[in-house]
Amino acid sequence: KGINDVYFSRYPFQIFLIVVFYIPTKALNVLHVKIGTGLLLIMINDVFIISSIILSFFAVKKMSCWNTAFFFLILLSLFSPLLLYSPVYYTDTSSMFFIAISFLMMTFLFKAKNKISKSCCAVAISISMFFAFNIKATAIIIFIAFLFCYLFLSNNKARDKIKIALILLIPFIALNMAWSSARNEEIDQQYTFPITHWIMMGTAEYG
Questions:
Q1: Which parts of the chain fold into alpha helices (H)?
Q2: Whole-model pTM?
Q3: Which of 45, 65, 113, 161 is buried most, with the most CB atoms less than 10 Å from its CB?
């Protein structure tokens, strides 16, 4: 009730959450398995949280060593927002999953030895960050951080750095343009909140 084109135009980040909820709901209905909506949402959310922790663990392992990775895992396990977010099915945890994928792929990008591997990693990061950005607009800050991190910390030649940076940017921009063109422009212009609205909400008070 109340969910229509106007709603999705004003809150476009909800589209992914509803799709993710719809798929297991339909699968459970086909199998005639009954699970309460609240419990199912918590289970989906826990998958996002646990997957994000595991992906981040392996990213740290690839950057450093097992000891550092396990120490990082312990810190994450004790990080109260992750624990408290379990019953909250929202954009924070779902976008975190795609950011964790990008974080892991960044470590592969730094370790990659040939151009094909680097390009594949860059495309994977770009696609993951496209999802993260469209779920949570503030994810663009992390994407920019990834770009600067590669440009300033990579040991590659300047020309190679620029090529990879472009490979990171082009799919991200192209996917966002395609996503924008697929939406109802007239309704979007009338009802969509600008990205700055969500960024300012995140920086309000203790943000």
A1: 5-10, 14-30, 37-63, 66-77, 80-84, 91-111, 115-135, 139-153, 158-181, 185-191, 195-203
A2: 0.79
A3: 45
